[in-house]
Amino acid sequence: MSEPANPHDPRAAQRLAWTRAALGDATAGLERASTDAGFRSYWRTQGTAPSRIVMDSPPDREDVRPWLRARDLLEAGGVRVPQVLARDVDAGFLLLEDLGGPTMAQVIDDANADAHIDSAITQLLTLQAMSLPNDTVLFGEALLQRDAGLFEDWYVRRHLGIELDCGDAERLQLAQRRLMDNALAQARVPTHRDYMPRNLMPVADGPAVLDFQDMVVGPIAYDPVSLLRDAFLSWPEARVDAWLRRYHARAIEAGLPVPDIATFLRDADWLGVQRHLKILGIFARLHHRDGKPRYLADAPRFIAYLDAVVPRYRELDPLQEVLEHTIKPAITRLSA
């Protein structure tokens, strides 16, 4: 259904007027295509052929310039990204090609997963081989410290409603420090930071990559584990292991700086733990601060991942103790 004119929503009226001017069609309409975890929204044009997508990025909430800068860098590096057909940066509107409806997350299944993952790895290898400007943000100590704080501040303290005692706080800090040191020791390459099936569109010359505005220079195992230990999809560990080995072999062929396979698998495991703790914090923040509760429904997936991986590594025993003795009992109380 097209978006009706709404005199009580100036942004909606501005969005529709800009779209009609960009298309040169005074009768064009808009319908919501999707939203994301930020403040951007996406709208599909109605009554025109071919259809287009309007990105609405309110300039007082989410500057569109980082998105455009990353898009241009990715395109120059050979990565398939949406084409920009018209733009008004100051107003926060972009007219984009319409890549179609379903994301990879909506079409991937047991039968076709190998093909989709292989195409995603192909695109990822292109991304990781890019050259980025010297001023590209480094996924280093500062970002890692910020990520580490999200779990305790938003998931533990705000969502579960508990304050860690001195012993648990020290154990969590020690585990986070070890996770950060592992990430900092890895070879650094261009890193999407959210390279997962929800952000990939299965087009013929793709997959096309979306939601790339937070691209940094970061640890080489980060994007592979984002893809294969997704925040919204779970696969059997044996299959994930096979895909990680497939990525590793292809990365060696591509000349990327991956370590030996045993080290790489450990690095992927540890980055998966770091990432899942961070996302638990982000999802809790989306719920409590931004009024977006649906993301927390996936929290049990993260806990299950931590249960599968953390016990493998004695160095992460401090985290295991906090999870078993404090976090899980609090989850049980909250869900009772």
Characterize the structure shown.
The chain has 336 residues and is an alpha+beta fold. It has two domains: 10-97, 2-Layer Sandwich (Phosphorylase Kinase, domain 1), CATH 3.30.200.20; 104-335, Aminoglycoside 3'-phosphotransferase, Chain: A, domain 2. It is 50% helix and 12% strand. It is built from eleven helices and nine strands. The chain has helices at 10-23, 65-76, 104-107, 113-128, 141-159, 166-185, 222-228, 237-253, 261-288, 299-309, 317-335; strands spanning 29-35, 41-46, 52-56, 84-88, 93-97, 188-191, 200-201, 208-209, 216-219. The strands form three sheets. Strands 1-2-3-5-4 form a five-stranded antiparallel β-sheet, covered by helices on one side. Strands 6-9 form a two-stranded antiparallel ribbon. It has a two-stranded antiparallel ribbon with strand order 7-8. A hairpin with a 6-residue loop joins strand 7 (200-201) and strand 8 (208-209). It starts with 9 loop residues before the first helix and ends with a helix.
